[in-house]
Specification:
By secondary structure, the protein is an all-beta fold. It contains no helices and 7 strands.
């Protein structure tokens, strides 16, 4: 994972929209001038911050999203389950910056 020279990297909002069968998440825009896409990671087991990143084969990207996308509606969730989300920004020079991990419990 590359260290960022930018002060405003991707951070998931701590207040997701949670409803039965749906989780709505949003994040801050990357300030990288070379941004090409976002990689959304999702896990059902609690990951450590150091292992939950895009290039770790144990946590492949759940979704690849356009660089203009700052909101995602996850409709593939089950009630009573806990999900862990993280968004990584990917630059054209293959540098990757990953933000915070968000824990969501679906009712």
């Amino acid at each position: 994972i590359a260290e960022s020279n930018f002060t405003n990297e991707v951070q998931l909002s701590p207040n997701p929209e949670i409803e039965k069968g749906r989780v709505g998440i949003n994040w801050t825009e990357s300030s990288s001038p070379n941004l090409t896409s976002y990689k959304l990671l999702r896990s059902t087991s609690e990951p450590s911050n150091s292992e939950f990143y895009y290039s770790n084969p144990s946590y492949p990207a759940y979704k690849t999203l356009d660089k203009s996308t700052l909101v995602y509606q996850d409709t593939q969730v089950a009630g009573g389950s806990t999900y862990y989300y993280r968004v990584c920004s990917v630059a054209s020079n293959n540098e990757i910056w990953c933000g915070n991990i968000l824990t969501v419990i679906v009712p």
